[in-house]
Design a protein that fits this description.
The protein is α+β, with helices and mostly antiparallel strands. Helix content is 26%, strand content 26%. It contains eight helices and 14 strands. The protein has helices at residues 21-34, 83-86, 92-103, 128-132, 140-149, 169-172, 174-181, 211-222, and strands at 4-7, 10-11, 16-17, 42-45, 51-56, 66-72, 77-78, 111-114, 121-125, 154-160, 191-196, 231-235, 241-247, 254-260. Strand 4 (42-45) and strand 5 form a beta hairpin. Helix 3 (92-103) packs antiparallel against helix 5. The radius of gyration is 18 Å and the shape is globular. The mean pLDDT is 90.
């Protein structure tokens, strides 16, 4: 059962946002570690994202730091079918081309989807050659201008499988490099992503739990695995993140996102 309830809001350096999964996990970890909440699932009441529930991912083992967050599973809406996006542009193809130029792989072919209202991000799914050409530091000014004009929170780019091996992200992503050095990488990585939201004061987010709702729905479908299958994901930011995600088979259409939290200081 759920035995703790808190209100939760999220702020970037420049504004308030409707959903931030990474900070939700951190909030639950801080409440448990400080003793302000009992060691049982925490229910967060939010302004725009509804009720979010965070629990121990391993049945209550405090030592591992593993945590699970429940997110709504969004419908996969192609950008060209999104009234929200299409009402803000006269040439969506030109806008996508501008974002690809800002990322680096100009002219790349991508599948394009839009996230739900509480995390309205543009998802660009790239092939591996295009992914390998995404710059370490993309043109944030161009990404900010285009996402702002389209009424979006941020930009997700993703590729199937391990998007770090054999690319500059193999060393640029510190978590991946550390796990590789220790021979502790997962046996299989199902998909890799990066997330940019410069219009909201975040050039590149280290780990974006909320973005993994749409990512989980997409890659569960694309890889042809049954609902309820756990996928392993890497977010290849400079710091890096490793997540376990699954799209539930239940009628309530939820996505579980699992990760680890570490207390840095009080």
């Amino acid at each position: 059962g759920r035995c703790a309830s808190w209100h939760l809001r999220w702020f970037t350096p420049s504004c308030e946002v409707d959903l931030c999964g990474h900070a939700t996990l951190a909030a639950a970890h801080a409440l448990w570690e400080s003793g302000r909440a009992p060691d049982c699932p925490i229910q967060f009441e939010t302004k725009a994202a509804g009720v979010l529930v965070v629990s121990r991912a391993d049945g209550g083992d405090e030592g591992s730091g593993a945590m699970r967050m429940e997110l709504g599973a969004p419908d996969l809406i192609e950008a060209a079918q999104s009234d929200h996006v299409c009402s803000r542009t006269e040439d969506l193809e030109a806008d996508i081309a501008e974002l690809l130029r800002a990322l680096g792989p100009e002219g790349a072919c991508a599948q394009v989807f839009v996230g739900p209202a509480e995390a309205r991000d543009l998802l660009l799914v790239l092939d591996k050659p295009s992914w390998s050409r995404v710059a370490d530091l993309p043109n944030m000014g161009a990404i900010a201008a285009t996402t702002r004009r389209l009424g979006l929170r941020g930009l997700i780019v993703s590729v199937e499988g391990d998007g770090c091996v054999g690319t500059e992200r193999e060393t640029a992503c510190r978590l991946y490099a550390e796990l590789h050095k220790k021979k502790a990488l997962p046996k299989s990585i199902d998909f890799t992503s990066r997330f940019f939201a410069p219009a909201f004061g975040i050039d590149e987010d280290p780990v974006t739990g909320s973005a993994h709702a749409i990512l989980t729905r997409y890659w569960t479908r694309e890889r042809g695995v049954p609902e309820g299958t756990t996928l392993t994901a890497v977010q290849a930011s400079a710091r890096g993140g490793l997540l376990q995600v699954r799209s539930r088979a239940e009628a309530d259409a939820r996505v579980d996102v699992e990760g680890h939290a570490t207390t840095v200081f009080w």
